[in-house]
Each structure stands twice: as structure tokens, then as C-alpha cells.
Design goal:
Uridine Diphospho-n-acetylenolpyruvylglucosamine Reductase, domain 2; 310 residues; Uridine Diphospho-n-acetylenolpyruvylglucosamine Reductase, domain 3; 4-stranded mixed sheet; 8 helices; alpha+beta; Uridine Diphospho-n-acetylenolpyruvylglucosamine Reductase, domain 1
């Protein structure tokens, strides 16, 4: 049932482009984010082809309706008021293929699964990504990295849809990849697939590195609770987690959101937190660290959506 205020016209157009099973109305976005936070989307659409992605973007432009790309919601907080208009999730685009030392992965595939594909083909270069929970599209969006490696080290090119719904092929250098950033949000690109160039290696050596990194991640990170991963970028000359720990903030809780006792750089949804509680705790941490050490922590996690109606 489409709630009052939502357009049957837009709904009908969306199911013409894709299918009824790929269009959800008034959908709770907390069901689609790693933090388990977020209000409702007017329309959540999950296209199955590149052409469908293009047509949905063009529809949003023609109808002058708000459009938001959700990704897989791993490094994202959606506010409690939800998101108006069309929200697109590319989790159906998950193909991964290998040709020699090159891997092509669609944007909805998990970067973890791409690193595992590399392992099975004895290709080295993506070991660092074996613990990153995000999608390929999200990994390009923020030039994801861990343990000394990052996407820009292995990315060759990408296919994207631009703001007008046109398909473009870009090189890695076109994306201005830098520490946890790219020009993808500024340009309004929607990543469809990425091509990675790797090096032939030895299975046992690649697996040993991945096993070691997996152990480090599982032993140090609070994976038992929903979270957005590392909340803050590394400030020059410091470590965010150390600053938070030295500010005696571990265990600090606002509502159901808590600064992790296991890793101070993480904020976890410990007990049915709202997005407002989670965001308020982020701000509290930023203010406290700034007050104690004169360092303003910059968010790595993205916050989108609307505040709840009061």
C-alpha cells in the first residue's frame, strides 16, 4: 500500500523500468544498513541491470524527484526521518569475473568477496580488503583501505552512470582517489563495476596474510554489535581511537549507542539505538576530544536523510 503523499505515478514508472518485486514502498532503511539505523524511504528500488540504473536516474531527473544511492549501508548512518524520493540499492549487481590477473566486479558485490576471488585465483594485491565489509561501489566511493593498502593501489578503471543517466568508462586517475575520499560524490557518479589489476602470487602466502588480517580484525573490532565500522578518519599525527581512549570515553553511552569497550574508534548500536542517539554520541566524542587535545576528529562515516518530525 502506498502511503498518503507518495505518488502512484512514480511507483508505476519504477515497476515499468524494473519489476514489482524490485520496488519497495515506505521501506524501513534500518533493515538495509549495518548500523541497523534509519527511517523510511519513500521508494527503495533494487535494479538488476545497468540499463535499469540508467532509466531510474533519468526518471528521477524527468520527474524532478529526489534521488539517493544507498550502497550496502556499511559506512553510512541514515537519520530517523528517513529519505524522501527514490532510494537505490545495487545489491543485486554482484557478478565477479577473472581474466588472467584482472578482476572485474560489479558494484553491489562485497569487496571481501572480491578479495576471496583473488585468493582462489592466486592473485595478490587485495589482501588488505579481506575484512572490509562494504560493497565495491562503496569501496571506490571512499577509496577504502586497511592495513597499509587501499583501493587506488589496484584499481584500473570503472564504469559509472552520471547525473544525466549516461554510461561512462573512467580510469582510476579520473576519480581523484586520496585518503578515504574520491570525486564520486561531487560528480554524482553511480559506480556500476570496477576493474582491478593484481599480481600473480602463491596461494599459501596470500592466504596467510588474509588469515592474519582477519584475526587482527576479529580480535580487535566489536563485530558482535551493529556498527558503521571506523567512525573517524585518522587525524594527522594521531590515531582517532587512541585520542578517544585517552579522553576516557570508552563505554560512554547515549541511549542505545555506545563507544565500544573493545575498540574506541567504533561506536556500536548496543541496544536498539536511534540514529539521533548515534549521531549525538559522535558529536559528543568530537567535542570532548577537541576540548581535551585540541584535535577535531573528522567523520569517515557519511550521514544522510532527514531529522525525525517532532
Amino acid at each position: 500500500m502506498i502511503r498518503v503523499g507518495l505518488s502512484h505515478h512514480i511507483y508505476n514508472k519504477l515497476i515499468e523500468i524494473t519489476s514489482e518485486s524490485n520496488v519497495m514502498v515506505d521501506e524501513e532503511l534500518k533493515n538495509h544498513t549495518y548500523t541497523r539505523l534509519g527511517g523510511k524511504a519513500d521508494f527503495l528500488v533494487t535494479p538488476e541491470t545497468y540499463h535499469e540504473v540508467q532509466e531510474i536516474v533519468r526518471l528521477a531527473n524527468e520527474e524532478k524527484i529526489a534521488f539517493t544511492l544507498l550502497g550496502n549501508g556499511s559506512n553510512l548512518i541514515v537519520k530517523d526521518g528517513g529519505i524522501r524520493g527514490i532510494v537505490m540499492n545495487l545489491h543485486r549487481l554482484t557478478d565477479i569475473s577473472t581474466n588472467g590477473s584482472t578482476i572485474v566486479a560489479q558494484s553491489g558485490a562485497r569487496i571481501i568477496d572480491v578479495s576471496r576471488e583473488a585468493l582462489t585465483k592466486t592473485l595478490s594485491g587485495l589482501e588488505f580488503a579481506c575484512g572490509i565489509p562494504g560493497s565495491v561501489g562503496g569501496a571506490l566511493y571512499m577509496n577504502a583501505g586497511a592495513y597499509g593498502g587501499e583501493i587506488k593501489d589496484v584499481l584500473v578503471s570503472t564504469k559509472v552512470v552520471d547525473k544525466d543517466g549516461n554510461l561512462q568508462v573512467l580510469t582510476a586517475s579520473d576519480l581523484d582517489l586520496a585518503y578515504r575520499t574520491s570525486n564520486i560524490p561531487e560528480k554524482g557518479y553511480i559506480v556500476l563495476e570496477a576493474t582491478f589489476s593484481l599480481e600473480k602470487g602463491k596461494y599459501a602466502e596470500i592466504k596467510a596474510i588474509m588469515d592474519d588480517l582477519t584475526y587482527k580484525r576479529e580480535s580487535k573490532q566489536p563485530l558482535e554489535y551493529p556498527s558503521c565500522g571506523s567512525v573517524f578518519k585518522r587525524p594527522p599525527g594521531y590515531f582517532a581511537g587512541k585520542l578517544i581512549q585517552d579522553s576516557e570515553l570508552q563505554g560512554k553511552q547515549i541511549g542505545g549507542a555506545q563507544v565500544s569497550l573493545k575498540h574506541a574508534g567504533f561506536i556500536v548500536n548496543k541496544d536498539h539505538a536511534t540514529a539521533t542517539e548515534y549521531i549525538n554520541l559522535i558529536r559528543y566524542v568530537q567535542d570532548t576530544v577537541n576540548e581535551k587535545f585540541g584535535v577535531r576528529l573528522e567523520r569517515e562515516v557519511k550521514i544522510i536523510g532527514e531529522d525525525p518530525v517532532r
